[in-house]
Amino acid sequence: MGKLFNVAVAGATGAVGNQMIACLEERDFPVKNLKLLATSKSAGRKLRFKGEEITVEELTKTSFKGVDIGIFSAGGATSKKYAHFAAKDGCVVVDNSAAWRMDPDVPLVVPEVNPHAVAKYSNKGIIANPNCSTIQMVVALAPIHREVGIKRIVVSSYQAVSGTGKKAIDELYNQTKAILNFLEPEKKVYPHRIAFNCLPHIDVFLDNGYTKEEMKMVDETRKILEDDSIGITATTVRVPVFFSHSESVNVETRQPISPDEVRALLENAPGVIVADDPSKNLYPMAIDSAGRDETFVGRIRADESVPNGINLWVVSDNIRKGAATNAVQIAEILARDYLSN
Ligand code: A2P
After folding, report:
1. In angstroms, what is the span from residue 190 Cα to ligand 1's centroid?
2. What's the CA dihedral at 37, 204, 293, 175 to 10 degrees?
3. Of all protein residues, whose CA lies closest to atom 26 belonging to ligand 1?
4. What gap in Å lies between CA 268 and CA 266, rounded to an integer?
C-alpha cells in the first residue's frame, strides 16, 4: 500500500472547504488522518468524511503540527496569517486564496497545464491554487497556446454567486424568494441586488478602473501559461446563477488555426469536454457542468473581424474544478511525486 498522509482542510465549513472534503473522499486521496479547521464559532461542529464524523477544530498557529498537507480555503487574510506557521511545521500548504498566487517563489498550478511547477513548492512550502475563472480559461486555452501561440485574449465572465461563499448562495436564494413574494429583498453581501440582475463588479475596484478579479485573470493566466507576452483584457460579471462560471473567450492566435482544428485539439485535451453542436442546440451550460470536474467548451467559431481570431464559450463548476478539485489534484501530484519517499 502507498504512503498515507495527514491532511488538514482550513475553512472546512465553507462552500469550497465542504467540497474539498467531498473531493478528498471521491478521489480516494490517501488520507491517514483528516483534520478540519475553521473559526472558534464552528469548533465542535461535526462533518462527515468516509462515513465517519470528524469534529471541527479552531484554526490556530499550532494546528499543523504533524500535518503533511494543509489545503486552505478560509480567505486571503487567514492564509497570509497561518500559511507560514504551517510551512514552519513541515506542512505543505495548497492555498485557494489570492494571498500567494503572484509571489514569484510560489508556484501557481493547474494540473492539466503546468504540473511541473509543483516542484517549486519547496521554496516556501506553499502552492497556490488559481482563481476559479482563470483555471477554466487556461484549461481550455493551454492546448491552443501550445499549438499555435496566443497573442491576445479578450474575456467576459458570467460568474456564479457560490464563488463569494455560502452567504452569497443564501443571498441569491433569499432575494429571489422575496421578490417572487412581492417582498423587499435584503442586501447583505453585494452592494446591489443580485437576484434578476448582473453586477459588473467582482472583488474590489483598483486604480486602473479594473476590478481585482479582472486583474487576477490577466496576471494569473500569464504566470500559468509562462508567457508574459500575451495581451489579456477581462470584464468579470456576477450573475444570478448558483454554481458554475461561464466565459466568453475571444483569442487571437499567432499562427492560423481553424475552428475544426481547435475542436479536434480540445477533444483530446485533458479535463476538457467539447459540447459544440449548434444544430442540436448543444453548447456548454452552467446547469450541465455543475457537479462535474471537466471544463466544457463550445460555440467554437472564427472571429471574422481579425485574421487569426477564435471565439469560445467556456463553462466549469467554480467550486469543483475552479477551487476544490484543482486543489486536491495539486495535492495528489505533491503526494505522489514529491512526498512519498
Ligand atoms: P467559519 O464557518 O467558522 O466562519 P465561505 O467562503 O463559504 O464563507 O467559507 C469561509 C471558510 O473559512 C469557513 O469555513 C470559515 O469558518 C473559514 N474562516 C474564515 N475566517 C477564518 C479564520 N480567521 N480562521 C479560521 N477559519 C476561518
Report:
1. 18
2. 90
3. 38
4. 5
Q: Decide: 238 and 202 in contact? Cβ < 8 Å.
A: yes
pLDDT interval class at 341 (50, 70, 90): confident
Q: What pLDDT score does 108 carry?
A: 98
Q: Are 37 and 59 in contact (CB under 8 A)?
A: yes
| Minimum CA distance residue for ligand 1 atom 19 | 74
| Reported confidence tier of residue 123, pLDDT bands at 50, 70, 90 | very high
- C-alpha cell, 18: 465542504
How many angstroms separate the CA atoms of 305 and 302, rounded?
Answer: 9
Measured by CA distance, the residue closest to atom 3 of ligand 1 is 39
Index of the ligand 1 atom closest to the CA of residue 164: 6
Q: Is the pTM of this model over 0.85?
A: yes
**Tens digits of residue pLDDT in 34-93:** 999 999 999 999 999 999 999 999 999 999 999 999 999 999 999 999 999 999 999 999
Q: Give me the pLDDT at residue 126, please.
A: 98
128 alpha carbon – ligand 1 mean position (Å): 18
Q: Pocket residues for ligand 1 (CB within 6 Å)?
A: 11-15, 17, 38-39, 41-42, 59, 74-75, 78, 165-167
- Find all residues with CB under 8 Å of 54, minimum gap 6, and list them: 34, 35, 36, 46, 47, 48
CA dist 250 and 256 (Å) reads 14
Per-position DSSP letters for 6-33, written without gaps between them = EEEEETTTSHHHHHHHHHHHHTT--EEE
Q: For residue 9, report the distance from its CA to the centre of ligand 1, in Å.
A: 11
Residue type for position 114: N
**Looking at the annotation, which residues are catalytic?**
132, 245
| pLDDT tens column, 82-120 | 999 999 999 999 999 999 999 999 999 999 999 999 999
Task: Supply 292's cell numbers.
Answer: 462535474
